[in-house]
């Protein structure tokens, strides 16, 4: 019996080391392949400059800004809606309507992003173009709205899971003390469910940063530094997808490893920040 | 009666595929896709033992993938550069001639431009359709990614290697460009002449309408070959496929899809 447990332990250890190792290896891989850029003292130029390969400029700053803008704006759109949905599912109507909505949200997670991309191109983009009467409608706003929809199931499911975990007796206690729904939410549910909410936000943010197709299809992919949500912009992921086709030996191609590295670091930084603030709260 | 004759005609050129088996992988230029699809359909109906897969990606992808041995045929809408040819030992087969034309939405009243105006639009110095006799709306410029042969040819021959504004929207295939322009009343982009249909309107540049006739007689200057590249001389199924493209039946498909045959 003990022998068996020992073997199971080794297997679990192995799995942990392997997955952590692969994650780290990806970072090392990115760094090694960006070495030509770093060694040639091009790093600052690439990180801070504009992108114009015809003129020998290979800056990825517009893409970094584009990625952050689209990801953050999609969180801004998606967070309140997701919070509302999960409260509806777990607290307001936990019966049939809530269960139905939850099933529906689960279904949403299974829809491939390319479908959302199509819907965005043919339904959302023309409306945004008509509504703001400026530009092509392929812009940060359109991409964030669509991306908000893509990441909302992740948040809704995590939020409702953590609301469901708040002990029923606590809820009854608030009711017994004559607390309103609003007070119940602010003083009990939200603080109790906060770690779960935070996890949901982190995962959704990671998904928003990492998504390629929505941005590639809807945000217009222009290489200018965006100055408003109505500007077309290119994300790091879309940039990699477009440049991967370039010549292997070219500088363009070498810079996409730096893009990958930056994407990796930005996501890790976001997660660390969120974990750190969560740790402080507890 | 006609069906029967057509059947016999095409069958004779497909005869070489008798008894062949295997998979043929094709990728690269997106202008080539309609012809590739039609040729493959005919071949696979004639001999279901053959499987042909067709992917896009753009000319750069086609050249790179065939060079690295990932596909059997890499299509490109520009001639492979000397360094590409020497590095990979590419052999180039040209099987059609195609034009690249600026296109606008069918609802756009501006249907004719000078070469200079076209360059200014793409450079971002003309920003409003009003300056060209259209509505008082900003011009939305659409361009292709750096790996596109269509872009390379349009940039070189229509824009005289001029600037393409950084504000331009980037699109990744001829098909996607066509749907972007047909959806955007204020857009301008460029596609392979073979892709032009009633959903988009070609722009008459310096009094020449880009179509099959003007490309053929040399009046319209923004033209390029459509190439299929192989690593080393084509052999086996790959060779038979390219021979088919160059046969009267294959050339007829190219004509049907809006290109000029080479034979």
* Major sheet size, sense and barrel closure of chain A: 2 strands, antiparallel
Question: Any low-confidence stretches of chain B, pLDDT <50, length ≥5?
Answer: 1-10
Helix content of chain B: 25-40%
CATH topology of the largest domain in chain A: MetI-like fold
Which sequence of SSEs, written as H and E, runs from N to C of chain B?
A: HEHEHEHEEHEHEHEEEHEHHE
Number of helices of chain A: 11
Distance between the termini of chain B: 28 Å
| Shape field of chain B | elongated
Total count of strands of chain B: 12
Q: Give the % helix of chain A.
A: over 70%
How are the SSEs ordered, and which strands pair?
The complex is a heterodimer of chains A (282) and B (263).
Chain A: H1 2-39, H2 43-48, E1 51-52, E2 57-58, H3 61-92, H4 96-109, H5 113-132, H6 140-164, H7 168-176, H8 181-210, H9 213-218, H10 236-243, H11 251-281
Antiparallel strand pairs in A: 1-2
Helix pairs in contact in A: 1-11, 3-4, 3-6, 3-8, 4-6, 5-6, 6-8, 7-8, 8-11, 10-11
Chain B: H1 2-14, E1 22-28, H2 33-46, E2 50-57, H3 59-67, E3 73-76, H4 82-88, E4 90-105, E5 112-113, H5 115-123, E6 140-144, H6 149-157, E7 169-171, H7 174-183, E8 187-192, E9 200-202, E10 204-205, H8 212-216, E11 223-231, H9 236-246, H10 248-256, E12 260-261
Parallel strand pairs in B: 1-2, 1-3, 5-10, 6-7, 6-8
Antiparallel strand pairs in B: 3-11, 4-8, 4-9, 4-11, 4-12
Features:
heterodimer, A: 282 residues, mainly alpha, MetI-like fold, 2 domains, 11 helices, globular, B: alpha/beta, elongated, disordered N terminus
Quick structural overview:
The complex is a heterodimer of chains A (282) and B (263). Chain A is mostly helical. Chain A has 11 helices and 2 strands.
Structure description:
The complex is a heterodimer of chains A (282) and B (263). Chain A folds into two domains: 1-33; 41-281, MetI-like fold. Chain A has eleven helices and two strands. Chain A is globular. Chain A is 78% helix and 1% strand. In chain A, helix 7 packs antiparallel against helix 8. The relative contact order of chain A is 0.14. With 263 residues, chain B is of the alpha/beta class. Chain B is elongated, with a radius of gyration of 19 Å. The two termini of chain B are 28 Å apart. Chain B has helices spanning 2-14, 33-46, 59-67, 82-88, 115-123, 149-157, 174-183, 212-216, 236-246, 248-256; strands at residues 22-28, 50-57, 73-76, 90-105, 112-113, 140-144, 169-171, 187-192, 200-202, 204-205, 223-231, 260-261. The longest helix of chain B has 14 residues, at 33-46. The A-B interface holds A 50-54, 121-122, 125-126, 129, 133-138, 216, 220-224, 231-232, 234, 242-243, 245-248, 252 and B 57-58, 60-61, 64, 84, 137-138, 140, 142, 145-147, 163, 166-172, 179-180, 183-184, 186-187.
